[in-house]
Design goal:
Blueprint (H helix, E strand, L loop, with lengths): L5 E11 L4 E10 L2 E6 L8 E4 L4 E4 L1 E3 L7 H8 L3 E11 L2 H11 L4 E7 H8 L9 H6 L12 H16 L5 E3 L9 H13 L3 E4 L15 H12 L2 E4 L2 H5 L3 H13 L3 E6 L4 E5 L20 E3 L4 E2 L3 H10 L4 E5 L6 H12 L4 E2 L7 E2 L15 E2 L3 H16 L4 H6 L3 H7 L20 E4 L20 E6 L2 E5 L2 E2 L17
Parallel strand pairs: 1-4, 1-5, 6-7, 7-8, 8-9, 9-10, 10-11, 11-12, 12-17
Antiparallel strand pairs: 1-2, 2-3, 5-20, 13-16, 14-15, 14-16, 18-19, 20-21, 21-22, 22-23
Helix pairs in contact: 3-5, 6-7, 7-9
Length: 495
């Protein structure tokens, strides 16, 4: 369906995290932008939608999404997301990744960082890679790309990342936890590259020395060190899962770095389980006890099985290293464990980000445009429910105002990307001149529905979602013909 030229959202509770406005108002949308907020008279030829009793907020911005299929984006739209960007993993070659999604036509906005890991697979490992996540998963367990780089290789890697920055990358994504033995100086060199162009980095930290004392450097200390030494904006991905029970020490380091002038932002999701390829470095059987894990706390998604023992884990890692798995690092039903998990979510200026995963198709070929998503497709429930669950947890369990909770999923993520992409200055806000990326929801009923056993169940309480002024979700129903998503690209300043 085509976006209407003029649309009025009538009588809702409008929330703008930038100005602090929280009150009844109408919102007028023209040509994909918010034209006015206030008391607005009916206009001839304008469509009017009554949103009385509902909250009207900026669309949620997800800085960490691997769900780049149409079906995956629809699932996120049902969670209130209007922009979902792949920044931790990123893409390389970058131009290919943007071309692929541009050609598909996407329901919500999308974008990529430059992928350090995939570029390293090509430059250091010598692998023939593509721009999709499948390339990373295919070679995730191969030791060649994890080896120390020669001086020539490191320069070639920097040059390869520079090409992606010139092609419009939104920063640099560093999956450091998957190659944690690299020289810390390489990490600093990449951070310096980003700092030179005033772009952020997005890091999956290497392990903490509390857990693995023989790491070349503590994963948390490395991130804050890079911020202070290079001046780069260092974004700490899913600080909940990589910090575990050491989260208080990690957040203390972040606080200290900020006090000393470093730019370090954090993100978290409200789930006690992570997800990645089963061949990941840190899922080696002999490493699990250091993290307090056993094979039985790993669920192999292609079959749904819990891994029975070390022998089965070794078999799966050898035969399907990129097969997605769910790893239970916190017990969500234990109040003490939940309290630790939530500390990363309620942390000052922590950003809500989903780490949404691709769909795993358990039987037959994938159908990445299927809707409703059939039962044979599974994912991590965070792909479907991170934002609605976070609103519930923050407002109903931790006493956040609705405006303060929304700030963590709208304005704060937009600000991370503003230096990279000017268009982000018009997102995460609800005021005249802002992009008409808007989420309308019932604050009394909004919640997640997806579970580990029913992982693609859409959230409830999301009534309307608009991207560029076009309904992607209307009256709670996905609009199957709606493809208003647009690429978020960097400003091509590198060089």
């Amino acid at each position: 369906m085509l976006a209407v030229t003029t649309l009025i959202l009538r009588g809702g509770r409008v929330l703008d995290p930038e100005s602090g406005f929280d009150g009844p108002a109408d919102v007028r949308i023209r040509d994909g932008r918010v034209d006015a907020v206030g008391t607005i008279e009916d206009e001839e030829h304008a469509a009017v939608v009554d949103v009385t009793g509902l909250a009207v907020a900026p669309g949620f911005i997800d800085l960490h999404s691997h769900a780049t299929s149409v079906a995956g984006q629809r699932l996120q739209a049902c969670d209130g997301v209007t922009t979902a960007v792949e920044l931790e993993g990123g893409a390389w070659p970058l131009a290919d990744a943007y071309a692929r999604l541009d050609g598909m036509g996407m329901p919500i906005n999308y974008g990529f960082s430059a992928s350090w890991a995939v570029a390293r697979m090509a430059v250091v490992g010598g692998f023939d890679v593509t721009s999709s996540l499948s390339a990373f998963l295919r070679y995730i367990s191969q030791p060649e790309w994890q080896l120390p780089a020669t001086a020539e290789q490191q320069q070639a890697l920097i040059d390869a990342l520079g090409v992606s920055l010139a092609d419009g990358a939104l920063g640099i994504g560093l999956l450091l936890g998957y190659a944690p033995r690299i020289d810390p100086d390489e990490y600093l060199a990449v951070a310096a590259l980003a700092a030179n162009d005033n772009l952020p980095t997005f890091t999956h930290a290497r392990e903490l020395i509390d857990v693995v004392p023989d790491m070349p450097i503590d994963g948390a200390s490395e991130i804050v060190r890079a911020a202070t030494e290079t001046g780069a904006h260092m974004h700490y991905c899913h600080v909940n899962s990589t910090s575990g029970h050491n989260v208080d020490r990690v957040l203390g380091l972040v606080d200290k770095a900020r006090a000393e002038g470093g730019t370090v932002t954090t993100e978290a999701y409200p789930y006690g389980a992570g997800s990645t390829g089963i061949g990941a470095f840190f899922l080696e059987p002999e490493r699990l006890p250091r993290m307090g894990l056993t094979p039985q706390r790993i669920r192999y998604m292609p079959t749904g099985e819990r891994v029975a023992d070390e022998a089965r884990l070794r078999e799966l890692r050898a035969t399907d290293p990129g097969g997605l798995a769910i790893i239970e690092f916190f017990d969500e039903d234990d109040p003490a464990e939940r309290a630790v998990l939530h500390r990363s979510l309620v942390f000052e200026d922590a950003i809500v980000a989903s780490d949404a995963m691709p769909l795993t198709w358990m039987d037959g070929p994938p159908d990445d445009e299927a809707w409703p998503i059939p039962a044979r497709a599974v994912t991590h429930p965070r792909s479907a429910g991170t934002f609605t669950r976070s609103l519930r947890v923050l407002t109903r369990e931790h006493g956040f105002s609705l405006l303060d909770a929304l700030r963590k999923m709208t304005l704060l993520p937009a600000r991370v990307l503003e230096p990279a992409a000017e268009t982000m200055q018009r997102k995460g806000r609800l005021c005249a001149g802002a992009d008409a990326d808007i989420t309308v929801f019932d604050p009394d009923t909004i919640t997640d529905q997806a579970t580990y056993d029913d992982s693609t169940r859409p959230s409830t309480g999301i009534v309307h979602v608009l991207v560029g002024g076009e309904f992607v979700v209307r009256d709670g129903e996905v609009q199957l013909d709606a493809r208003p998503g647009r690429a978020i690209r960097g400003a091509h300043r590198f060089g």
